[in-house]
Amino acid sequence: MTAPLPITRSFKPRRRRLSPMRAERYARLAPQWTISPHGQLLDWFEVFGDGGPVVLDIGFGGGEALIELAGARPDERVVGVEVHTPGISNVLDAIDASGWHQVRVVEGDALELLSRVPPASLAGVRMFFPDPWPKRGQHHRRIVRAEVVAALVDRLAAGGYLHLATDITDYARHAQVVLEADPRLAGGLIPRPSWRPITRYERKAIAAGRTSVDLLYTRIDQWQELPIDLHHRGDH
């Protein structure tokens, strides 16, 4: 049985108007490459046309990391979720320019999309620099909270990974506590992976003197041995 799906939004809507040229491209590309967050349970084979590993990229922002990793990992099927319209447009443009068939985009709330994601069907979940909701009264909106983590882990296959990056020290501590509370996850703090792209957001964080923290966990079953080297999980 999967965990009940959370409904509290974990993002601030950031929809912006596109230029007429970009709006035209968006209207042309979206029907082919986007997935609705609402509807029946998805069949990844029907979505992508094969049985390749599927990774959920939650909150990809401007799309830089998603685009770079999609180019470097053509065997990986990526479902990117975002509400930032220009970022979605960037990814759609990259799909079109690169002739990719392994990337899909969801414009909406990842928490709503989860109801369409089959249990134990994901090879990985990426959450790079999610909204930290810094005020104490906003912490319940953080995407890394117990009920969300439970729902995400339900949808990870055994051996699948959950990778979080944040430049907010308090959020990193909070996330580590929440992630380590799920007995199906093993892992923890890792050095910054060389393969994780530096986005515009992270460059601003570095310029402001903030250091990024990477947390990497793998779904295990009780009878499984721990991975030999979690540091290189997903580095292929």
Query: What can be said about the biggest beta sheet?
Result: 7 strands, mixed
Q: What would you give as the CATH superfamily?
A: Vaccinia Virus protein VP39
Q: Do you know the CATH architecture?
A: 3-Layer(aba) Sandwich
How many structural domains can be distinguished in the coordinates? Answer: 1
- CATH fold label: Rossmann fold
Q: Helix share of residues?
A: 25-40%
**Strand segment tally:** 7
Order of strands in the sheet with the most strands? 3-2-1-4-5-7-6
Strand content: 15-25%
Q: Averaging pLDDT over every residue, what do you get?
A: 88
CA gyration radius, whole angstroms: 17 Å
List the uncertain runs: 228-232
The geometry reads as globular
* Class by alpha and beta content: alpha/beta
Between the first and last Cα atoms, what is the distance in angstroms?
A: 32 Å
Descriptors:
32% helix, 8 helices, Rossmann fold, single chain, alpha/beta, 236 residues, seven-stranded mixed sheet, globular
